[in-house]
Amino acid sequence: MILTHGVGGRQDLPLPLEYVIAGAVLALVVSFGLLVLTTRRAAAGQTDGGQITGSQGPQVRNPRGWPVPRLGRIVDSTAWTALWRIVGLLIFAYFVLVAFAGPDNANNPIFGMTYVWLWVGIVPFSLLFGHVWKAISPARTVVAGLTWLRGDGEPMLRLPERLGYWPAALALLAFAWLELVYPENNYLGPVRIWLALYLAVMIIGGALFGEDFLERTDPFEVYSSLTARLSVWGRTPAGNLVVRTPLGNLDTLRPAPGLVAVVSVLFGTIVYDSYRDSPQWLRLVQNPALSGDTAYLISNIALIAFPLLVAGFYCVGTMLTGVGDVPRRALPAQLAPSIVPIVVGYVVAHYLSYFWESGLATLRNASDPLGNGGDWLGTADMPVSYFFAFHATLLAVIKVTAVIVGHVLGVWSAHIRALQVLPNQHLITGQVPLLVTMVGFTVGGLYLLFSV
Q1: DSSP H or E run through 416
Q2: CA 163, CA 167: separation in Å to the nearest integer?
Q3: In sequence order, which ranges of 130-209 are alpha helices (DSSP H)?
Q4: Quick check: is 422 in a domain?
Q5: What is the pLDDT of residues 20-73, one digit of tens each?
Q6: Rg of the chain over CA atoms, in angstroms?
Q7: Within a domain: 7
């Protein structure tokens, strides 16, 4: 049976406390080493800089990359784009089939396809291939078709710039609520309604406001695009395909309103998902003195509170990093890309075995979409591999490594950006609050992942 829980939530193994302490100490040592290293490079005038500081903070540079013209011609061709549009439409058609003709039980593949393949799988696929959701999004395909029929490429309305990524942050929180809090998320009706509303809003908004609406409000596209910044595939300002280092791609992410909210929701919901399996939380919500409605209310409040706590801790740390004439209010958004590697690290650490096992179970169920004993894909009798369950030590090493690597990349990204706005006399002291913030994220995350 597939656990209808989009982002894991179970504890794959109890990791000894010494693992947690060792991981936290390693994060601290590596972080401090990066701080000293980048500071010395900055003092020697060897930083890979190039930003211009203005009244709104540092302007993001466009790092160079290695051009791949032959591959670029293929990827940018009409045939290649059409191919993946067709793939996206076929996947959408399958979703519609299982949503309306499939069985209303846990064997319906729509649950695994939504909670596992889409929500969790969007991270590894975007890391490997770049902006995958943008390529296969059925909403984008429908909007492109409507725009073509209208015969005018200009949008009817302009989306206010001040909205930024705020709609995407709210949509991401809404999906997290569906799969983490809503008690009937394992029934076909609620999932069908959520996906239908999502698609309707994206199509109507895209038809009115153009592609900018999808880039800033589609929760899956925003999530995929943020993760794709850590892939090796990038674009020059002219739109040419290049290969870059992951941090080079991350440096191209422009700050915008709501970007801090998006990364806080992504990180905060993972933290909430970890904490809700702890004995303390279970004792609270399963207290016989509490009614079901009260426990449900507490869960809703916690889902909102965790992203707010992440955002508050992060904003305080980044704003304390500002010294001298640095615009403190601009720093959280400027440094927000540094949270993306940390989010990706926790996704790998928290959901790896869940994605593997439930993803295979979904593939098995997908071969019988109507629940009548069919075998459309030839995988109906495929056994589910519990490889990680039998290799607990390997899983533990991967989890700790994912957290540490994500933290190190986040620290490096944050330090490089901070060095471009801090005055020379505060290159070290100005980054101490940022260092404490990052290490705090690591220590707290390791504790929640392995000790609760």
Answers
A1: helix 392-419
A2: 7
A3: 132-136, 138-150, 166-180, 188-209
A4: yes
A5: 667 666 776 777 676 667 666 655 554 443 343 433 444 445 677 899 999 999
A6: 23
A7: no
Question: Is residue 10 assigned to a domain?
Answer: no
Asked whether 332 and 319 are in contact (CB, 8 A), the reply is yes
Q: Which helix (H) or strand (E) holds 243?
A: strand 241-243
Query: Which residue shows structure tokens 């005055």?
Result: 423
Range of the domain at 348: 17-450
Give 10's contacts (C-beta < 8 A, 6+ positions apart): 3, 277, 354
Q: Are 369 and 102 in contact (CB under 8 A)?
A: yes
Residues 158-180 have pLDDT tens digits of: 999 999 999 999 999 999 999 99
In the numeric block, the tokens 């071969």 are attached to 367
Q: What is the token pair recorded at 214?
A: 């999808």
DSSP secondary-structure letter at 46?
A: -
77-104 b/e with 16+ CB inside 10 Å = b?
Answer: eeeeeeebbeebeeebebbbebbeebbe
Rounded (10°) angle between helices 166-180 and 292-321: 140
The domain total for the chain is: 1
d(CA 313, CA 445) in angstroms, rounded, equals: 14
Tokens of residue 174, six digits: 């809404």
Residue 245 CA to residue 248 CA, distance in Å, equals 5
What pLDDT sits at residue 57?
Answer: 44
Q: Is the pTM of this model over 0.85?
A: yes
Query: Which tokens go with 34?
Result: 């990066």
Classify residue 9: in a domain, yes or no: no
Closest CA to 247 of 72, 411, 35: 411
Q: What is the pLDDT of residue 59?
A: 47
Q: What is the largest CA-CA distance in the chain?
A: 72
CA end-to-end distance (rounded Å), the chain: 25
Alpha-carbon span 267 to 437, nearest angstrom: 14
